[in-house]
Amino acid sequence: MGENIIKSLKQKMLLFGLAVFVCVMFAGCNNKTEEMALRLSQLEPTQYKHPGGFSVSVPGDWQVKEETENMVFFVDEEDSMTLLLLSEIGGYDYLSLAEAGQSLVTILEGSLSEIESLSSGPYGQLDDAYKVVCQGEADGTTAIASAIVWQPLDGVRYYAVFLAGVNDYEEFRQVFDDICGTIKLYKTQDEIYEAIEATSGWMRQDAADH
To answer: Of the candidates 5, 20, 179, 184, which has an alpha carbon nearest to the alpha carbon of residue 109?
Structure first.
């Protein structure tokens, strides 16, 4: 079961690889002068509710680029930054948080070359969360990816991945942390576990068919 979920996670991330590349290339052309780091509260935040049961606040001018039953993909107004939120249910602790966080670095290698880890460790904005930050190259442009994995319930994980050019990242790094601090579940624990059971049944059938 765990291998199937990891495969699904990678497929969902890589599905939007081209969109991420486009955003990174735009970010590389961004030559803003250095400014003080922004906070989410300065950017007229708006709350977004995903049908999967989680909500999050994002800057008011960020738009939903794509949405599926377990993922939402945001871009900023200038297409220079991207934010991916992905829910994963049915994992049942097949990986530790640290292992799940480090697996994101491997997944990001599909979009970034010469990737290197800048930092990793427990994430203080959320309970039971882990954060990794890495840097890589895309079409000659240096980009930074900051990713968080959060496990609010057994067998339920949420991933948030923020990707931007170096200048934008420095200006918006605190905004990303603020965004992650707003992620909440708006469905009950029972409703979420019902979804786990439904997903597990689908995965067992899918495995049997293949």
So the answer is: 20
CATH code for the domain of 79: 3.40.1000.10
- Residue type at 49 in one-letter notation: K
β-pairing verdict for 141-153 and 156-165: antiparallel
Cβ pair 153, 88 in contact under 8 A: no
In the chain, how many domains are there?
Answer: 1
**Is the model's pTM score more than 0.85?**
no
Q: What is the pLDDT of residues 57-112, one digit of tens each?
A: 999 999 999 898 888 999 998 888 999 998 877 654 567 888 888 777 777 777 77
Alpha carbon of 191 to those of 58, 127, 184: distances in Å?
25, 21, 14
CB-facing half-sphere around the CA of 81: CA atoms within 13 A: 24
Residue 194 in tokens:
């019902």
Which DSSP category does 40 fall into?
G
> In 3D, which of 197, 187, 120, 125 has the Cα closest to residue 155?
197
